[in-house]
Amino acid sequence: MEHRGGSRRKGDGVPKENSPFINNTDNDKGNSYDGTNMALFEEEMDSNPMVSSLLNKLANYTNLTQGAQEHEEADDDEGPKKKTIKSPQMGTFMGVYLPCLQNILGVILFLRLTWIVGTAGILESLAIVGLCCSCTMLTAISMSAIATNGVVPAGGSYYMISRSLGPEFGGAVGLCFYLGTTFAGSMYILGTIEILLTYIVPKAAIFVAERKEDEVDALLNNMRVYGTCCLALMAVVVFVGVKYVNKLALVFLACVILSILAIYAGVIKTIFEPPDFPVCMLGNRTLQNHNFDKCLKTDIIDNLTVTTQLWKLFCDGTGLNATCNKYFDDNNVTMVQGIPGLTSGVISENMWSKYGPLGMLVENKLTSNGRHDPSQDIYLPYVVNDITTFFTLLVGIYFPSVTGIMAGSNRSGDLRDAQKSIPIGTILAIATTSFIYVTCVVLFGACIEGVLLRDKFGDSVKGNLVIGTLSWPSPWVIVIGSFFSCCGAGLQSLTGAPRLLQAIARDGIVPFLQVFGHGKANGEPTWALLLTAGICEIGILIASLDAVAPILSMFFLMCYLFVNLACAVQTLLRTPNWRPRFKYYHWALSFLGMSLCLALMFISSWYYAIIAMAIAGCIYKYIEYRGAEKEWGDGIRGLSLNAARYALIRLEEAPPHTKNWRPQLLVLLNLDSDQGVKHPRLLSFTTQLKAGKGLTIVGNVIEGTYLTKEAEAKKAEQNIKSSMSAERTKGFCHVVVSSNLRDGFSHLIQSAGLGGMKHNSVLMAWPGTWKQSNDPQSWRNFIETIRETTAAHQALLVAKNVDSFPTNQDRLGEGTIDVWWVVHDGGMLMLLPFLLRQHKVWRKCKMRIFTVAQMDDNSIQMKKDLQMFLYHLRLDAEVEVVEMHDNDISAFTYEKTLMMEQRSQMLKQMQLSRTEREREAQLIHDRNTASHATINDKADTGPERVHMTWTKDKLFTERNRNRECNTNVAVRDLFNMKPEWESLNQSNVRRMHTAIKLNEVVVNKSQGAHLVLLNMPGPPRNRGGDENYMEFLEVLLEGLNRALLVRGGGREVITIYS
């Protein structure tokens, strides 16, 4: 916000959320609020605009169609010629009702509905129509709810689903809808060619069958050639000018409506005067009426009996004594009226289904003379089934005739009031078309003879379109009308599909599709059109309308299924933003619609259904894995939140059973001065330990106050998240700003996690520089963290030399993970190597368990017991029992303890200057090194005190020898004691002795191990000895490359029970 002084105050650094309807232009930023009325809010004007300016922007908002932005930019270059863009002006009737009507009524109605009625019978046909129309009506109700829940920009159904169900579902469904629309283009083109070659110009066929058995192949090859040419022509038309396609849309729609009116007119006419379309029958078999004029075997001309053209088709000569087909000899030729009329009572015969296999002869109810095998006669000029028919196949073929309900929502950008028009227009269009289909099924069954209904290509009526024979005034009305209707629908599919693909590509959710987002200067999607034509060609090469129809049924059903799912999810979740203006919806209706879509998919074709689901699943997983991060406030995210809340409440009810226990980690990370992660290998180790299972919280503490350190905290969080991503650590990041590190770590240990999803283990790196650090607070924080985890009953893992741990790309060869099990603290030591070995980094490592036996223990029995324990735990590990004797305390131990105490004393004298303190520390270090070297020389000549394998005799001799030694210890120590040793704290001497002896044994046995796990001794109760405790741990871990100190959380974490 600008002030009179010209200075501009910034907001609080909070990035402003992109609003879907407020376009912040540079001009807006210059608005100055000179008045004093709003001075209280003046600092927030940048981030929170005044309500008046918000309303002003809303009033000026225009919902432009897809690609309009590019048109605007193209027009900018024209300077003064720039056209003004009109606001959308289409109403419900022109904008939604008519486009839906045109898209729904089409090729299947004209080319296949009569055949479906004849094959399935009126009752089953009504069931098919009822199923499919119910499915689209329920989907339309769901779609209306989504479409009226806020502004729907251009992009229609894809936009609605993606914004309701998220980018993954949106991308999957959008591409399904795209493939459906593309295959619909193939189907319309095949329909166009079928009408052209079968009914308009049959002589144009390139491939002509010599024999009847080759007719099907010839027809398919003709479809492929002509279909490809037609596709190329349509693609060129779409490329050159979409505006012509849109202008012709009304012409194509007029063709459809005129054709339907012609059918109804024809039906009414049959009551008074049925049209004359005789069907020639031989016995009860229907004959193809192509190659003969008269339905007679013989004819009398000039008092002479002569054979007809029909005779020549069944006999080997023209004479009356020629040898003829046996069925031809046994049965008479009769003529039945193809269209007996509405009042003829033929409806009762057409009520039931007449399914049959490929090649089945189309027969009527009349009985034929003699016994004959129909399979011998299928290559004679009879009308036969060209495919095997059954109920589910007809569902798949019929379903495309009810698709097209999205036509209105796809034009949402052109509507004056999309929220009002889409529901009314779509539901009215579905009601109208459903009425048309139901009446057509009944009227076809009531007017047309059954054999003619089952004659798919009208062979029995001289190759006329069956539905055309019923129409008035002429069959050509329907033939021409359906031809243009199919042409128009094909063009519109080729226009709509590339735009849909362009919308998906521009959303950026499927990276490899981004090239299809580009187009011509005016926004026309050129590359998308090429891909669409390529996919369309696949459908044309299939060549059979009956084979392509179920494919696009699958894709449309998948799309409708997700529309219903989106509505059901949003309704059940009661999302605050779910406030549709359309009120006549219910989650149960959406759920019923979804179930119906799924059922229809498997009814139509179970294998196509599985393929379509696999395609959608692959797209979903691909977008999830590679897609751009998009947050669209979708319902699936709301569903996840609800599910998470429910699960968390359930988890809180009881602590997890030992069988379900796994380390839920809080990883305490250190950052450098640039907020970069100091030890990324700690995250690698976390990944290897967790393998993506359970909870991981990566925490860090920044010293200061939140108001001053907010930016640093955000940067730290970003850096940690990018490190987690690089190391493939799945979990959450938690950065806390606290007045001091000690309190920050304490807060994290206490409060990280939520409800039952809290951590039970803490992982941190060993403070390697604690001796060099001038600030004792660093190691004090470390010890306090140990105390706090113990108090919180949480396990603690401390990684020593963490930077030498393997990365996720490393593969450790043959080696061991050594566990030193000194004290039992819940079985963490056993569980961790098992979990690590699940990861490919550690998979080849073997597990070894060492345990320490005291003087009075029977080590042989201990080994047996431990092996049995591991057997019951189902863990594979080598077992060794190591004996440690109560031998005398060495001079090295005394020296080491003395140096430790002197160092502690020295650090306590705070008046020492920093340089003096460093010099003293260095002096102690030098003495330490020198004495260590001397002791090592002595140690080489000393007796071996540690034995690994035992026999009974050896055991007793060793015990006696040790007892003799122990009696002399006190006497010997008196003579060897140096005067300064006498003042040492004996407790510290004993602890140092344990650390040194245990370290000797561990280094001796496990120096070559890939990882060593040890019990971590607890810190002293008296805080005065904290620095000594650090020294003990340092001595214990000396000489080990990779070590993990483990401290249990006070509960059993591993069990022998199933």
UniProtKB/TrEMBL annotation:
<dbReference type="GO" id="GO:1990573">
    <property type="term" value="P:potassium ion import across plasma membrane"/>
</dbReference>
<dbReference type="GO" id="GO:0015379">
    <property type="term" value="F:potassium:chloride symporter activity"/>
</dbReference>
<feature type="transmembrane region" description="Helical">
    <location>
        <begin position="249"/>
        <end position="272"/>
    </location>
</feature>
<feature type="transmembrane region" description="Helical">
    <location>
        <begin position="169"/>
        <end position="190"/>
    </location>
</feature>
<feature type="transmembrane region" description="Helical">
    <location>
        <begin position="387"/>
        <end position="407"/>
    </location>
</feature>
<keyword id="KW-0597">Phosphoprotein</keyword>
<feature type="region of interest" description="Disordered">
    <location>
        <begin position="1"/>
        <end position="39"/>
    </location>
</feature>
<dbReference type="InterPro" id="IPR004841">
    <property type="entry name" value="AA-permease/SLC12A_dom"/>
</dbReference>
<keyword id="KW-1003">Cell membrane</keyword>
<feature type="transmembrane region" description="Helical">
    <location>
        <begin position="527"/>
        <end position="545"/>
    </location>
</feature>
<feature type="domain" description="Amino acid permease/ SLC12A">
    <location>
        <begin position="96"/>
        <end position="273"/>
    </location>
</feature>
<keyword id="KW-1133">Transmembrane helix</keyword>
<dbReference type="Pfam" id="PF03522">
    <property type="entry name" value="SLC12"/>
</dbReference>
<keyword id="KW-0325">Glycoprotein</keyword>
<feature type="domain" description="SLC12A transporter C-terminal">
    <location>
        <begin position="807"/>
        <end position="1058"/>
    </location>
</feature>
<feature type="transmembrane region" description="Helical">
    <location>
        <begin position="91"/>
        <end position="113"/>
    </location>
</feature>
<dbReference type="GO" id="GO:0007268">
    <property type="term" value="P:chemical synaptic transmission"/>
</dbReference>
<dbReference type="GO" id="GO:0055064">
    <property type="term" value="P:chloride ion homeostasis"/>
</dbReference>
<dbReference type="GO" id="GO:0045202">
    <property type="term" value="C:synapse"/>
</dbReference>
<feature type="domain" description="Amino acid permease/ SLC12A">
    <location>
        <begin position="384"/>
        <end position="666"/>
    </location>
</feature>
<dbReference type="GO" id="GO:0005886">
    <property type="term" value="C:plasma membrane"/>
</dbReference>
<dbReference type="InterPro" id="IPR004842">
    <property type="entry name" value="SLC12A_fam"/>
</dbReference>
<feature type="transmembrane region" description="Helical">
    <location>
        <begin position="473"/>
        <end position="491"/>
    </location>
</feature>
<keyword id="KW-0630">Potassium</keyword>
<dbReference type="GO" id="GO:0006884">
    <property type="term" value="P:cell volume homeostasis"/>
</dbReference>
<dbReference type="InterPro" id="IPR018491">
    <property type="entry name" value="SLC12_C"/>
</dbReference>
<dbReference type="GO" id="GO:0055075">
    <property type="term" value="P:potassium ion homeostasis"/>
</dbReference>
<keyword id="KW-0472">Membrane</keyword>
<keyword id="KW-0813">Transport</keyword>
<keyword id="KW-0812">Transmembrane</keyword>
<keyword id="KW-0633">Potassium transport</keyword>
<feature type="transmembrane region" description="Helical">
    <location>
        <begin position="551"/>
        <end position="573"/>
    </location>
</feature>
<comment type="similarity">
    <text>Belongs to the SLC12A transporter family. K/Cl co-transporter subfamily.</text>
</comment>
<keyword id="KW-0868">Chloride</keyword>
<protein>
    <recommendedName>
        <fullName>Solute carrier family 12 member 7b</fullName>
    </recommendedName>
</protein>
<feature type="transmembrane region" description="Helical">
    <location>
        <begin position="125"/>
        <end position="148"/>
    </location>
</feature>
<feature type="domain" description="SLC12A transporter C-terminal">
    <location>
        <begin position="680"/>
        <end position="798"/>
    </location>
</feature>
<feature type="compositionally biased region" description="Basic and acidic residues">
    <location>
        <begin position="1"/>
        <end position="15"/>
    </location>
</feature>
<dbReference type="InterPro" id="IPR000076">
    <property type="entry name" value="KCL_cotranspt"/>
</dbReference>
<feature type="transmembrane region" description="Helical">
    <location>
        <begin position="223"/>
        <end position="242"/>
    </location>
</feature>
<dbReference type="Pfam" id="PF00324">
    <property type="entry name" value="AA_permease"/>
</dbReference>
<feature type="transmembrane region" description="Helical">
    <location>
        <begin position="427"/>
        <end position="453"/>
    </location>
</feature>
